[in-house]
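Regression test case RT-17, inverse folding.

Input:
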């Protein structure tokens, strides 16, 4: 079993599969965060959230973090900046380009449909 960062839409879109691989971005999390700082964009992993039930065992009942949703355009700014940066730099982050392209495709559709989103980790 491998770890992946996938996109969760606030609601389903008929006929649209929001699947993304998301495995390579996990492997390069630190380098991605560093690139986001250089680019002065919201870090990709700042968009992480989970349903409250997934955290319940780790918190007191009244302290479970609420699930957060983000406008797709915020994620698109980060994803597109990262894609441009990696294509220009041609370095260690090249393996994540396919994941970022999938994120871009899904977020573009979510923006068209005005559906909020967040990243979630699959362990």
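Golden output:
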């Amino acid at each position: 079993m491998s770890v992946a960062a996938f996109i969760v839409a606030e609601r389903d879109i008929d006929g649209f599969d929001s699947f993304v691989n998301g495995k390579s971005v996990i492997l390069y999390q630190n380098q991605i965060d560093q690139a986001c700082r250089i680019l002065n964009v919201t870090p990709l992993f700042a968009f992480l959230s989970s349903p409250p039930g997934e955290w319940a065992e780790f918190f007191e009942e009244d302290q479970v973090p609420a699930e957060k949703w983000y406008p797709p355009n915020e994620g698109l700014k980060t994803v597109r900046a990262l894609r441009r940066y990696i294509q220009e730099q041609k370095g260690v982050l090249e393996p994540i380009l396919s994941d970022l392209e999938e994120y871009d495709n899904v977020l573009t559709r979510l923006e068209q449909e005005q559906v909020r989103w967040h990243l979630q980790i699959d362990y």
